[in-house]
Amino acid sequence: MKKLRVGILFGGRSGEHEVSLLSAASVVNAIDKSRYEVVPIGITKEGQWVTAKHAEGLLHTGKPGQQKNSDREQRPRELRAGDPDTTPGAAVLTKGEAVIVPPVPGPNSSNSMVPFQTEGGTALSRRWTDRAINVDIIFPVLHGTFGEDGTIQGLLELANIPYVGAGVLGSAAGMDKDIMKQLFASAGLPIVKHVTVLRRDWESDGKRAQRLIESKLKYPVFVKPANLGSSVGISKVHGRSELAPAMSMAAAYDRKIVIEEGVGGKKGKARELECSVLGNDDPIASLAGEVVPGKEFYDYAAKYLEEGSDLLIPAPLTKKQMKSVQEMAIQAFRAVDCAGLARVDFLMHPRTGKIYVNEINTMPGFTAISMYPKLWAASGITYLELISRLIELGLERHEEKQKNRYNRD
Asked: At how many degrees (to 10) do helices 319-335 and 177-186 cross?
């Protein structure tokens, strides 16, 4: 049987670039090689698309064409996003052949992105066959801005290439915490009290914005950029004196700032629960897990740079609580029109036990030791099976979309 060519798209311009390298390395390492031919495709931090003949070897060892068994065994335990020595996938981004990819479907309806290519670093010429990225499906292992927000998905839609994960709408809605919360509320899901402030309004009249926030919410509050992932730019604000620095930091990342009231107030800290969802129109939910942060809350450093956080799988919940989390995870998945995969995060009040939907991540961290695949492993789906199922779901969704008519002929 002919192998499917799977393009593993990684890197990107977001602040989660290094996390993407780790996720891609894990996917390339674990994917079923008897069924799939891997085509690694990197995007540099500057946005340049690159490919390389020995990219798979580069992702694992940093040296073209070399991949020792010991590297396969040790890599998952070594992966830490903050350590450049454990992200050799970056090598493909510097040694690959540069291409500029326009959103043009390949000839004869083939699943390929046909690039403009640079010649001698100056002239641009279009070649329809020379360096086309020919794949059957793209697995965009991209996190955060310019990867998880609908932009890459739009490019792949224009090129008519199947891809893993949510579409343009689901990705964009899942990235924007303000829009996401509006959709959750419309679906009847419980969400925490929050206020959204535009950067322009904060910069033009900070005191007025402060009055608005304090009239709606009680300290402590969490200040977040509306469009960013991996807890980048997020601050916990305990009182008025900490609000302005937190708002300014969040405003550096996005034009919209979301301020959420802390669940549990000053006397308690919310429990942080997570649940993985898998599927398209008929999704299923995994067992829920619980994150016990090594810091005051689960920020970027706690997730990727520092030890001390614990993952409890399954989460210590009653059967009723577990069922409620799973049902709300599926509701949240459908509320944003998600597809393929997502991880839904919850907050549980430390005293009342009330559970709130906090946010959805449409392309969660995907290393073998990330929460999303670990929850599925605990639910009976191995990492290898999970990758294959996601590819199948991407092809299924693309096939369904081909039934649409786009003209009157």
From this structure: 110
